[in-house]
Amino acid sequence: MALQSIQLVLDNTEPLKWPRGNRLPLYLWPVMDLETKDETEIEKVLHQLDQRGIGLISTWHPASYEQSLAQGLKVGRVQKQLGLSVGINANPCTYSFFNGDPQTAHIDQNEERFFDLSFGSGHQMGCPFAIDFRLPEMRKQVEDFVHAYQQSDVAINFVFADWEIDGPIEWNGAWEASKRCQRCCAEIGDIADFHAFQSGLRRKRSQLQRVMLADSVTSYFPGALVGNYAVYPHDGYRYWYDYFEQFVEGTPHKREGSAKYRQWFHEFPLTEYTCAMPVVYTWDTIWDWYDFDSSDYRWFYNMLKVGNNAAQSMQNTKSVAAPLVTFVHWHTVDTLDTQPPGLQQFSADMYQELLWHLLLRGHETFFMWCPSNQIVQETRLVHQVYAASLEYRDFLDSGTPINFDIPPQPGPVVSAIRLGNRLLVRRTDFNSQDQSLSLTVDGKTFQAPPAGGQCLIIDLD
Length: 461
Description:
The protein is an alpha/beta fold.
Protein backbone atom coordinates (compact mmCIF):
# COMPACT_ATOMS: atom_id res chain seq x y z
CA MET A 1 0.00 0.00 0.00
CA ALA A 2 2.89 2.38 0.71
CA LEU A 3 3.96 2.64 -2.93
CA GLN A 4 0.35 3.10 -4.02
CA SER A 5 -0.15 5.86 -1.46
CA ILE A 6 3.04 7.62 -2.50
CA GLN A 7 2.07 7.40 -6.15
CA LEU A 8 -1.35 8.84 -5.30
CA VAL A 9 0.39 11.78 -3.64
CA LEU A 10 2.66 12.30 -6.64
CA ASP A 11 -0.30 12.18 -9.03
CA ASN A 12 -2.13 14.87 -7.08
CA THR A 13 0.65 17.39 -6.51
CA GLU A 14 2.79 19.56 -8.77
CA PRO A 15 6.52 20.33 -8.65
CA LEU A 16 7.32 23.47 -6.68
CA LYS A 17 7.27 26.80 -8.49
CA TRP A 18 9.57 28.40 -5.90
CA PRO A 19 12.60 26.70 -4.30
CA ARG A 20 12.28 25.28 -0.79
CA GLY A 21 15.76 26.40 0.24
CA ASN A 22 16.46 25.37 3.83
CA ARG A 23 12.86 25.21 4.93
CA LEU A 24 11.75 21.89 6.35
CA PRO A 25 9.94 19.63 3.90
CA LEU A 26 6.22 18.98 4.05
CA TYR A 27 5.44 15.69 5.79
CA LEU A 28 2.46 13.55 4.79
CA TRP A 29 1.30 10.44 6.61
CA PRO A 30 0.81 8.52 3.33
CA VAL A 31 4.43 9.23 2.31
CA MET A 32 5.95 6.72 4.66
CA ASP A 33 7.97 3.56 4.02
CA LEU A 34 9.20 3.22 0.46
CA GLU A 35 9.16 -0.55 0.34
CA THR A 36 10.87 -1.25 -2.97
CA LYS A 37 14.42 -2.59 -2.79
CA ASP A 38 15.29 -1.29 -6.27
CA GLU A 39 17.68 1.62 -5.67
CA THR A 40 16.91 3.10 -9.07
CA GLU A 41 13.22 3.18 -8.17
CA ILE A 42 14.02 4.60 -4.73
CA GLU A 43 16.06 7.41 -6.27
CA LYS A 44 13.34 8.16 -8.80
CA VAL A 45 10.59 8.42 -6.19
CA LEU A 46 12.73 10.48 -3.80
CA HIS A 47 13.56 12.89 -6.60
CA GLN A 48 9.90 13.29 -7.52
CA LEU A 49 8.98 13.91 -3.89
CA ASP A 50 11.80 16.42 -3.48
CA GLN A 51 10.58 18.31 -6.54
CA ARG A 52 7.33 18.79 -4.62
CA GLY A 53 8.99 19.66 -1.30
CA ILE A 54 7.77 16.45 0.37
CA GLY A 55 9.93 14.46 2.76
CA LEU A 56 9.90 10.67 2.94
CA ILE A 57 9.83 8.90 6.31
CA SER A 58 10.99 5.35 7.09
CA THR A 59 9.56 3.39 10.02
CA TRP A 60 11.56 1.48 12.60
CA HIS A 61 9.98 -1.78 13.75
CA PRO A 62 11.82 -3.43 16.66
CA ALA A 63 9.76 -6.60 16.20
CA SER A 64 11.35 -7.01 12.74
CA TYR A 65 14.60 -5.22 13.50
CA GLU A 66 16.90 -6.60 10.79
CA GLN A 67 14.41 -6.17 7.95
CA SER A 68 13.30 -2.73 9.13
CA LEU A 69 16.86 -1.51 9.60
CA ALA A 70 18.04 -2.80 6.23
CA GLN A 71 15.24 -1.06 4.33
CA GLY A 72 15.58 2.15 6.32
CA LEU A 73 19.31 2.31 5.66
CA LYS A 74 18.82 1.51 1.98
CA VAL A 75 16.47 4.49 1.64
CA GLY A 76 18.60 6.62 3.97
CA ARG A 77 21.74 6.12 1.89
CA VAL A 78 19.95 7.34 -1.22
CA GLN A 79 18.53 10.30 0.72
CA LYS A 80 22.05 11.16 1.87
CA GLN A 81 23.40 10.82 -1.66
CA LEU A 82 20.72 13.21 -2.97
CA GLY A 83 21.24 15.68 -0.12
CA LEU A 84 17.78 15.05 1.31
CA SER A 85 16.54 14.89 4.90
CA VAL A 86 16.48 11.43 6.49
CA GLY A 87 13.15 11.15 8.31
CA ILE A 88 12.18 8.43 10.77
CA ASN A 89 8.96 7.20 12.34
CA ALA A 90 10.14 5.75 15.66
CA ASN A 91 6.65 5.18 17.02
CA PRO A 92 6.76 1.35 17.13
CA CYS A 93 9.88 1.67 19.31
CA THR A 94 7.96 3.61 21.97
CA TYR A 95 5.45 0.90 22.93
CA SER A 96 4.76 -0.23 25.51
CA PHE A 97 5.70 0.69 29.03
CA PHE A 98 2.32 -0.65 30.17
CA ASN A 99 2.63 -4.03 28.50
CA GLY A 100 0.39 -5.99 30.86
CA ASP A 101 3.22 -7.10 33.12
CA PRO A 102 1.80 -7.41 36.68
CA GLN A 103 4.79 -5.40 37.91
CA THR A 104 3.37 -2.35 36.11
CA ALA A 105 0.02 -2.50 37.93
CA HIS A 106 -1.31 -0.22 40.64
CA ILE A 107 -1.33 -1.68 44.16
CA ASP A 108 -4.24 -0.91 46.47
CA GLN A 109 -4.25 -0.76 50.27
CA ASN A 110 -4.95 -4.50 50.43
CA GLU A 111 -1.86 -5.27 48.33
CA GLU A 112 -4.10 -6.21 45.39
CA ARG A 113 -2.82 -5.32 41.93
CA PHE A 114 -5.17 -3.60 39.47
CA PHE A 115 -5.14 -1.71 36.16
CA ASP A 116 -7.02 1.36 35.00
CA LEU A 117 -9.10 0.22 32.01
CA SER A 118 -10.72 3.60 31.24
CA PHE A 119 -8.61 4.23 28.13
CA GLY A 120 -10.23 1.54 26.02
CA SER A 121 -9.81 -2.14 25.35
CA GLY A 122 -6.25 -3.33 25.15
CA HIS A 123 -4.86 -0.56 27.35
CA GLN A 124 -3.93 -1.83 30.79
CA MET A 125 -2.83 1.45 32.33
CA GLY A 126 -0.98 0.85 35.56
CA CYS A 127 1.09 2.78 38.08
CA PRO A 128 3.20 5.61 36.60
CA PHE A 129 5.79 4.99 39.30
CA ALA A 130 6.17 1.26 38.66
CA ILE A 131 7.58 1.33 35.15
CA ASP A 132 11.16 2.52 35.52
CA PHE A 133 12.32 -1.08 35.15
CA ARG A 134 10.92 -0.96 31.58
CA LEU A 135 13.01 2.08 30.64
CA PRO A 136 16.28 0.33 29.63
CA GLU A 137 14.42 -1.95 27.24
CA MET A 138 12.40 0.91 25.77
CA ARG A 139 15.50 3.04 25.25
CA LYS A 140 17.30 0.11 23.65
CA GLN A 141 14.50 -0.27 21.09
CA VAL A 142 15.31 3.24 19.84
CA GLU A 143 19.05 3.25 20.45
CA ASP A 144 19.74 0.04 18.52
CA PHE A 145 18.48 1.73 15.36
CA VAL A 146 20.20 5.05 16.04
CA HIS A 147 23.53 3.40 16.71
CA ALA A 148 23.26 1.36 13.51
CA TYR A 149 22.63 4.54 11.49
CA GLN A 150 25.69 6.16 13.06
CA GLN A 151 27.81 3.10 12.29
CA SER A 152 26.56 3.20 8.70
CA ASP A 153 27.37 6.93 8.40
CA VAL A 154 23.76 7.84 7.61
CA ALA A 155 22.86 10.95 9.58
CA ILE A 156 19.33 11.22 10.90
CA ASN A 157 17.62 14.60 10.49
CA PHE A 158 14.07 14.12 11.80
CA VAL A 159 12.56 11.58 14.18
CA PHE A 160 8.98 11.64 15.37
CA ALA A 161 6.74 9.43 17.47
CA ASP A 162 3.00 9.24 17.99
CA TRP A 163 3.29 8.00 21.57
CA GLU A 164 -0.17 8.47 23.03
CA ILE A 165 -2.03 5.86 25.12
CA ASP A 166 0.86 4.58 27.21
CA GLY A 167 2.81 5.78 30.21
CA PRO A 168 1.51 8.32 32.74
CA ILE A 169 -1.71 10.10 31.64
CA GLU A 170 -3.86 12.06 34.08
CA TRP A 171 -7.25 11.89 32.31
CA ASN A 172 -10.23 9.52 32.24
CA GLY A 173 -10.12 7.27 35.32
CA ALA A 174 -6.43 7.79 36.05
CA TRP A 175 -6.87 10.19 38.99
CA GLU A 176 -9.32 7.89 40.78
CA ALA A 177 -7.08 4.88 40.15
CA SER A 178 -4.05 6.69 41.55
CA LYS A 179 -6.00 7.70 44.66
CA ARG A 180 -6.50 3.97 45.30
CA CYS A 181 -2.83 3.13 44.68
CA GLN A 182 -0.54 3.15 47.69
CA ARG A 183 2.53 3.79 45.54
CA CYS A 184 0.95 6.78 43.74
CA CYS A 185 -0.20 8.25 47.06
CA ALA A 186 3.30 7.95 48.48
CA GLU A 187 4.99 9.44 45.41
CA ILE A 188 2.62 12.38 44.90
CA GLY A 189 1.79 13.28 48.48
CA ASP A 190 -1.25 15.55 48.17
CA ILE A 191 -2.93 13.37 45.58
CA ALA A 192 -6.30 15.02 46.23
CA ASP A 193 -4.87 18.16 44.59
CA PHE A 194 -5.19 17.70 40.82
CA HIS A 195 -2.37 20.17 40.18
CA ALA A 196 -0.01 18.02 42.27
CA PHE A 197 -1.30 14.86 40.58
CA GLN A 198 -0.94 16.27 37.06
CA SER A 199 2.52 17.67 37.78
CA GLY A 200 3.72 14.35 39.18
CA LEU A 201 2.47 12.35 36.21
CA ARG A 202 3.64 14.78 33.56
CA ARG A 203 7.10 15.07 35.08
CA LYS A 204 7.40 11.30 34.95
CA ARG A 205 5.99 11.20 31.41
CA SER A 206 8.51 13.84 30.32
CA GLN A 207 11.40 11.92 31.86
CA LEU A 208 10.38 8.73 30.06
CA GLN A 209 10.22 10.53 26.71
CA ARG A 210 13.55 12.27 27.27
CA VAL A 211 15.44 9.10 28.18
CA MET A 212 13.67 6.77 25.74
CA LEU A 213 13.55 8.98 22.66
CA ALA A 214 15.05 12.47 22.76
CA ASP A 215 18.38 11.57 24.39
CA SER A 216 18.64 8.31 22.47
CA VAL A 217 18.67 10.25 19.20
CA THR A 218 20.48 13.48 20.06
CA SER A 219 23.31 11.74 21.90
CA TYR A 220 24.29 10.28 18.52
CA PHE A 221 22.98 13.04 16.22
CA PRO A 222 22.97 16.34 18.14
CA GLY A 223 21.46 18.28 15.24
CA ALA A 224 18.48 15.98 14.72
CA LEU A 225 14.93 17.22 15.16
CA VAL A 226 13.09 14.94 17.58
CA GLY A 227 9.48 15.34 18.65
CA ASN A 228 6.30 13.59 19.69
CA TYR A 229 2.70 14.13 18.67
CA ALA A 230 0.95 16.72 20.89
CA VAL A 231 4.02 17.81 22.86
CA TYR A 232 4.61 21.54 22.45
CA PRO A 233 4.94 24.76 24.45
CA HIS A 234 1.68 26.41 25.57
CA ASP A 235 0.11 28.99 27.84
CA GLY A 236 -0.91 26.57 30.58
CA TYR A 237 -4.07 25.28 28.88
CA ARG A 238 -5.05 22.77 26.22
CA TYR A 239 -7.77 23.86 23.81
CA TRP A 240 -8.66 20.44 22.36
CA TYR A 241 -9.34 16.82 23.38
CA ASP A 242 -7.82 13.75 21.80
CA TYR A 243 -10.10 10.88 20.85
CA PHE A 244 -9.22 8.89 23.99
CA GLU A 245 -9.49 11.76 26.49
CA GLN A 246 -12.48 12.60 28.66
CA PHE A 247 -12.97 15.63 30.85
CA VAL A 248 -12.68 14.81 34.56
CA GLU A 249 -15.03 16.65 36.90
CA GLY A 250 -13.26 18.69 39.52
CA THR A 251 -10.16 19.36 37.42
CA PRO A 252 -8.95 22.95 36.81
CA HIS A 253 -10.15 24.49 33.57
CA LYS A 254 -11.46 27.67 32.03
CA ARG A 255 -14.68 27.94 30.06
CA GLU A 256 -15.66 29.64 26.83
CA GLY A 257 -19.10 28.89 25.47
CA SER A 258 -19.50 25.15 26.00
CA ALA A 259 -15.76 24.52 25.80
CA LYS A 260 -13.79 23.43 28.84
CA TYR A 261 -10.14 24.26 28.27
CA ARG A 262 -8.09 22.04 30.57
CA GLN A 263 -5.15 23.09 32.69
CA TRP A 264 -1.99 21.58 31.20
CA PHE A 265 1.50 20.98 32.56
CA HIS A 266 4.55 22.58 30.89
CA GLU A 267 6.15 19.33 29.75
CA PHE A 268 7.88 20.38 26.53
CA PRO A 269 11.12 21.74 28.06
CA LEU A 270 11.50 18.68 30.29
CA THR A 271 11.35 16.25 27.36
CA GLU A 272 14.28 18.02 25.67
CA TYR A 273 12.61 17.50 22.31
CA THR A 274 14.15 19.58 19.56
CA CYS A 275 10.96 20.17 17.59
CA ALA A 276 7.42 20.79 18.78
CA MET A 277 4.40 19.02 17.32
CA PRO A 278 1.06 20.75 18.00
CA VAL A 279 -2.13 19.11 16.76
CA VAL A 280 -4.55 21.25 14.74
CA TYR A 281 -7.43 18.93 13.84
CA THR A 282 -11.15 19.23 13.08
CA TRP A 283 -12.28 17.26 16.13
CA ASP A 284 -16.08 16.84 16.01
CA THR A 285 -16.33 18.09 19.61
CA ILE A 286 -15.41 21.61 18.46
CA TRP A 287 -18.71 22.12 16.65
CA ASP A 288 -20.89 22.44 19.77
CA TRP A 289 -18.44 24.55 21.75
CA TYR A 290 -19.32 27.86 20.08
CA ASP A 291 -22.52 29.42 18.77
CA PHE A 292 -21.05 31.49 15.92
CA ASP A 293 -23.41 32.00 12.99
CA SER A 294 -20.50 31.28 10.67
CA SER A 295 -20.05 27.52 10.59
CA ASP A 296 -16.52 27.91 9.27
CA TYR A 297 -15.56 30.18 12.15
CA ARG A 298 -16.46 27.49 14.67
CA TRP A 299 -13.62 25.41 13.22
CA PHE A 300 -11.28 28.26 12.35
CA TYR A 301 -11.50 29.95 15.75
CA ASN A 302 -10.58 26.89 17.79
CA MET A 303 -7.95 25.57 15.39
CA LEU A 304 -6.21 28.94 15.18
CA LYS A 305 -6.40 29.19 18.98
CA VAL A 306 -4.56 25.86 19.23
CA GLY A 307 -1.94 26.87 16.67
CA ASN A 308 -1.64 30.33 18.18
CA ASN A 309 -1.06 28.86 21.62
CA ALA A 310 1.93 26.86 20.39
CA ALA A 311 3.45 29.57 18.19
CA GLN A 312 3.10 32.46 20.61
CA SER A 313 4.30 30.37 23.53
CA MET A 314 7.35 29.28 21.54
CA GLN A 315 8.10 32.89 20.64
CA ASN A 316 7.77 33.90 24.30
CA THR A 317 10.02 31.09 25.52
CA LYS A 318 13.57 32.35 25.80
CA SER A 319 15.25 29.14 26.93
CA VAL A 320 13.87 26.83 24.22
CA ALA A 321 13.72 27.45 20.50
CA ALA A 322 12.49 24.64 18.28
CA PRO A 323 10.62 24.52 14.97
CA LEU A 324 6.89 23.79 14.99
CA VAL A 325 6.15 20.71 12.89
CA THR A 326 2.38 20.83 13.12
CA PHE A 327 -0.02 17.93 12.66
CA VAL A 328 -2.97 19.08 10.52
CA HIS A 329 -6.12 17.45 9.18
CA TRP A 330 -9.16 18.71 7.28
CA HIS A 331 -11.93 16.08 7.25
CA THR A 332 -14.00 16.09 10.44
CA VAL A 333 -12.47 13.70 12.99
CA ASP A 334 -15.27 11.56 14.42
CA THR A 335 -14.80 10.87 18.13
CA LEU A 336 -18.41 11.08 19.37
CA ASP A 337 -20.95 8.26 19.27
CA THR A 338 -23.51 10.64 17.77
CA GLN A 339 -22.67 13.46 15.39
CA PRO A 340 -23.57 16.92 16.79
CA PRO A 341 -26.81 18.29 15.25
CA GLY A 342 -26.25 20.52 12.24
CA LEU A 343 -22.52 19.76 11.99
CA GLN A 344 -21.03 21.08 8.76
CA GLN A 345 -17.67 20.16 7.30
CA PHE A 346 -15.03 22.90 7.51
CA SER A 347 -14.87 24.40 4.02
CA ALA A 348 -11.77 23.65 1.98
CA ASP A 349 -11.10 27.33 1.25
CA MET A 350 -11.19 28.36 4.89
CA TYR A 351 -9.08 25.37 5.93
CA GLN A 352 -6.42 26.59 3.52
CA GLU A 353 -6.75 30.09 4.96
CA LEU A 354 -6.14 28.60 8.40
CA LEU A 355 -2.95 26.96 7.13
CA TRP A 356 -1.74 30.31 5.81
CA HIS A 357 -2.34 31.96 9.17
CA LEU A 358 -0.43 29.21 10.96
CA LEU A 359 2.58 29.82 8.72
CA LEU A 360 2.41 33.58 9.23
CA ARG A 361 2.29 33.06 13.00
CA GLY A 362 5.44 30.97 13.13
CA HIS A 363 4.70 27.36 12.22
CA GLU A 364 7.60 25.93 10.25
CA THR A 365 5.92 23.13 8.31
CA PHE A 366 2.99 20.71 8.41
CA PHE A 367 2.63 17.01 9.07
CA MET A 368 -0.64 15.98 7.44
CA TRP A 369 -2.37 12.93 8.91
CA CYS A 370 -5.23 11.14 7.17
CA PRO A 371 -6.61 7.64 6.55
CA SER A 372 -6.09 6.12 3.11
CA ASN A 373 -9.51 7.06 1.73
CA GLN A 374 -8.81 10.78 2.27
CA ILE A 375 -5.35 11.02 0.71
CA VAL A 376 -6.25 12.92 -2.45
CA GLN A 377 -8.19 15.82 -0.91
CA GLU A 378 -6.05 16.14 2.20
CA THR A 379 -2.83 16.14 0.18
CA ARG A 380 -4.01 18.68 -2.38
CA LEU A 381 -5.18 21.16 0.23
CA VAL A 382 -2.07 21.19 2.37
CA HIS A 383 0.41 20.93 -0.49
CA GLN A 384 -1.12 23.85 -2.38
CA VAL A 385 -0.60 26.14 0.63
CA TYR A 386 2.87 24.84 1.44
CA ALA A 387 4.01 25.23 -2.17
CA ALA A 388 2.53 28.72 -2.58
CA SER A 389 4.03 29.90 0.72
CA LEU A 390 7.54 29.42 -0.66
CA GLU A 391 7.10 32.58 -2.71
CA TYR A 392 7.51 34.35 0.64
CA ARG A 393 10.33 32.17 1.94
CA ASP A 394 12.46 35.17 2.98
CA PHE A 395 9.69 36.34 5.35
CA LEU A 396 9.03 32.84 6.69
CA ASP A 397 12.73 32.10 7.19
CA SER A 398 13.91 35.36 8.71
CA GLY A 399 10.86 37.41 9.71
CA THR A 400 9.11 37.77 13.07
CA PRO A 401 5.36 37.18 13.55
CA ILE A 402 3.84 40.33 15.05
CA ASN A 403 0.12 39.60 15.44
CA PHE A 404 -1.47 36.81 17.45
CA ASP A 405 -4.93 38.32 17.85
CA ILE A 406 -8.00 36.13 17.30
CA PRO A 407 -11.36 37.94 17.06
CA PRO A 408 -13.83 36.58 19.65
CA GLN A 409 -16.59 36.82 17.02
CA PRO A 410 -16.50 36.24 13.27
CA GLY A 411 -14.77 39.14 11.54
CA PRO A 412 -11.45 40.00 9.88
CA VAL A 413 -8.52 37.81 10.97
CA VAL A 414 -5.07 39.22 10.25
CA SER A 415 -1.66 37.60 10.57
CA ALA A 416 1.58 39.36 9.72
CA ILE A 417 5.32 38.73 9.66
CA ARG A 418 7.78 41.59 9.84
CA LEU A 419 11.08 41.49 7.93
CA GLY A 420 13.00 44.74 8.19
CA ASN A 421 10.66 47.54 7.18
CA ARG A 422 8.20 45.29 5.36
CA LEU A 423 5.21 43.27 6.46
CA LEU A 424 3.84 40.10 4.91
CA VAL A 425 0.12 40.21 5.70
CA ARG A 426 -2.72 37.71 5.31
CA ARG A 427 -6.29 38.82 5.97
CA THR A 428 -9.27 36.46 6.04
CA ASP A 429 -12.80 37.81 6.44
CA PHE A 430 -15.77 36.16 8.09
CA ASN A 431 -19.28 37.60 7.86
CA SER A 432 -18.24 39.73 4.87
CA GLN A 433 -16.13 42.79 5.64
CA ASP A 434 -15.04 45.34 3.05
CA GLN A 435 -13.35 48.09 5.05
CA SER A 436 -9.63 48.37 5.78
CA LEU A 437 -8.43 47.29 9.19
CA SER A 438 -5.91 49.42 11.08
CA LEU A 439 -3.02 47.72 12.83
CA THR A 440 -0.12 49.28 14.73
CA VAL A 441 3.53 48.20 14.58
CA ASP A 442 6.17 50.08 16.61
CA GLY A 443 3.85 53.03 16.93
CA LYS A 444 3.15 53.14 13.20
CA THR A 445 -0.33 52.46 11.90
CA PHE A 446 -0.88 50.60 8.66
CA GLN A 447 -3.96 49.49 6.78
CA ALA A 448 -4.78 45.87 6.03
CA PRO A 449 -7.41 46.00 3.28
CA PRO A 450 -9.47 43.01 2.13
CA ALA A 451 -7.16 40.94 -0.03
CA GLY A 452 -9.41 38.27 -1.54
CA GLY A 453 -7.39 35.27 -0.42
CA GLN A 454 -3.99 36.76 -1.24
CA CYS A 455 -0.96 37.81 0.78
CA LEU A 456 0.02 41.46 0.78
CA ILE A 457 3.45 42.99 1.27
CA ILE A 458 3.21 46.36 3.03
CA ASP A 459 6.08 48.84 3.30
CA LEU A 460 6.18 50.38 6.79
CA ASP A 461 8.15 53.47 5.67
